[in-house]
Automatic annotation (TrEMBL):
InterPro entries per the UniProt record, alphabetical: Tscrpt_reg_Rrf2, WH-like_DNA-bd_sf, WH_DNA-bd_sf
Species of provenance: Gelidibacter gilvus
Example GO molecular function: DNA-binding transcription factor activity
Protein name: Rrf2 family transcriptional regulator
GO cellular component: cytosol
Length: 144
């Protein structure tokens, strides 16, 4: 459903949020290890998230990546997905056909539209704080 880069971006954002709650910045190396992603690939993903002001990058000996605590609750999953994959998940045919719309629907057009709309609702209503707190409480997990 999401690209591999987007999956890593979501995992990295959650991990950074968890560390930021504890007042810590995390290094590229630490993030890549935690989400089981190659460092160079992780760096490109983090650059996109920094560019779109989802995470902060601090340079220097005590630098790393962080999210201000007060911002964690306002970052929606949809922002992370848009930063990495754009909005293509909300468009296009469920079967990958070039021509699929209301006038020329594919066999799964209506069912896929329903699923796509529900996915959009979930991404726009779920924030990093919810995900981080679920992990912190043990209600869900981020380990691979």
């Amino acid at each position: 459903m999401f690209s591999k880069a987007c999956e890593y971006g979501i995992k990295a954002s959650i991990y950074i949020a968890l560390s930021s709650y504890d007042g810590n910045r995390v290094s590229l190396k630490e993030i890549a290890k935690e989400i089981d992603s190659p460092e160079a690939f992780t760096a490109k993903i983090l650059q996109a998230l920094v560019r779109d002001q989802i995470i902060n990058s601090v340079k220097g000996a005590y630098g790393g990546f962080e999210i201000p605590k007060e911002a964690i609750s306002s970052i929606k999953l949809s922002q992370i997905v848009n930063s990495i994959d754009g909005d293509s998940i909300y468009h296009g045919c469920g079967l990958g056909l070039n021509v699929c719309d209301e006038n020329h629907p594919c066999p799964v057009h209506d069912q896929f539209a329903t699923i796509r709309n529900e996915l959009k609702r979930m991404l726009e209503s779920t924030n990093l704080e919810q995900l981080a707190l679920d992990i912190k409480s043990g209600a869900s997990f981020l380990k691979i």
